[in-house]
Amino acid sequence: MTPPKTTADKLKDQLALPLITAPMFLISNPTLALAACKEGIVGSFPALNQKTVEGLDKWLTEMDDGIAELKKNNPGAKIAPYAVNLIVHKSNPRLEEDLALIVKHKVPIVITSLGAVSDLVDAVHSYGGIVLHDVTNIDHAKKAIAAGVDGLIAVSAGAGGHAGTMNPLTLVNELRGIYDGMIVLAGGLTTGRDVFTAEAMGADFAYMGTRFICTTESSADPAYKQMVLDAKPADIIYTSAVSGVPANFLKDSLTKAGFDVEQLKKEGGAAGKLKPIANEAAAWKTIWSAGQGAVNIDDVPSVKELADRLKQEYAEAEQKLAAKHAIKAAAPATPKRPPAPKP
Question: Which domains can be identified in the chain, with CATH numbers?
Answer without folding.
Answer: 11-220 (3.20.20.70), 223-286 (no CATH)
